[in-house]
Amino acid sequence: xxxxxxxxxxxxxxxxxxxxxxxxxxxxxxxxxxxxxxxxxxxxxxxxxxxxxxxxxxxxxxxxxxxxxxxxxxxxxxxxxxxxxxxxxxxxxxxxxxxxxxxxxxxxxxxxxxxxxxxxxxxxx
Length: 125
Prior knowledge:
By secondary structure, the protein is mainly β.
């Protein structure tokens, strides 16, 4: 999910072209849980040896600049181009391999430049 704002610049020559600059705050969350009991054969009898769940959780947030333009083909219908000149995202992950085991943690800082290029086709209500 992104939360942000754009500032549209008025075009003096073209009344259908709207260049813009803005900023976004990307937010991300993901969690995956898995239950897969270990069953072993003990003397011909199946025995459940381990019954805990495993979890992986990722949380991410950052700050991105946005640049692009929208060109209105008709009233309410536009096409456009957008990219992120500078983007920074911090992500933190936790992995719980099984009950009683140590929680594994890692974090990542990601910088990107001139990335996330989009071609847009949109409708304005």
